[in-house]
Fold:
Amino acid sequence: MRRLFAALTAGFLMAAAPLPPAPVEDRPLADPALEARAVALQQSLRCVVCQNESIAESGAVLAADLRQVVRERVAAGDSDEEVRAFMVARYGDFVLLKPPFEPATWLLWLGPLIVVLLGGLAVIAYLRQRRTVPEATALSADEMARLDALLAQEDET
Amino acid sequence: MIRRLMFFAPVAVLAVLAGLLWLGLGRDPEALPSTLINEPLPAFELAPVRPGDTDGLSSTDFSGRPMLLNVFASWCVGCRIEHPFLMDLARQGVVIQGLNWKDAPGDGAAWLVEHGDPYAHVGDDPEGRAGIDLGVSGAPETFIVDAQGRVRYRHIGPVTPEVWRNDLAPILQSLEAEG
Structure:
């Protein structure tokens, strides 16, 4: 009941506030090659509002603004690297959906490889342990004679 | 002996993992570090919001003493929560500069008339470009800027008395002590 009341109160409060601005309309660039580059960049940049979407797919208002900024920078002749640097300067490495390979992210990138290596070593150790060594038994008289013969043959050659 | 240790190894691994995950639970994944910490404010020159003002807000307004830069909008619910407390802070002599983020024309001015005006200067950022230069991800956000115009701290979300006491006030005080 209290929860319901709280939800209703929140609802009224939000109804009283003016609505947030609508996302700006996407205006694709006229040049299809530039537009393709802009879209690829948008897909590689994380939306800082919803965090698990790229700005290409996010419905957030800020994502729409950032899509527009990407198009403007691409149209102004920025390279992909420059556009990404522009975003990183403002929002940090977090905006890159593919994080850079640097000391702080070594564990992130190499972690899976390390886990596979450790797992592999464990499997090898286990298999070696399991392969039971047959117990040594004394040679029979027959086998002894054959061994002697072979060794004698070895000596001759 | 070794066999015994081997038996406990998975338990130890699990314990370490559980500890790390437990620590992770306490972290707020939405609290992104600002890239501007200890960097000068990006340059901006914003138009006035208040009808009587000739000047809006400029990055050069941040000099001489430490100040707050508060990003607000009339449509933002969190701003409604923190606004009375910002009024208190202004009465106590804290200098607060306002950045009116992505508001429709006139809404920011109407908001200040209705709820009171705690700001020294207020600048209009209708398209949110100054906000993007500041790395703003939403409203409200509050930056502490030192007397040399460098950003020293960024708080995301409403400034409540608790946030003020625990996070913002100590930093502002130490900056004021620096001079």
User: Anything to note?
Assistant: The interface with chain B takes residues 13-14, 17-21, 24, 48-49, 51, 61-62, 65-66, 69, 88-92, 94 of chain A (CB under 8 Å). The mean pLDDT of chain A is 86.
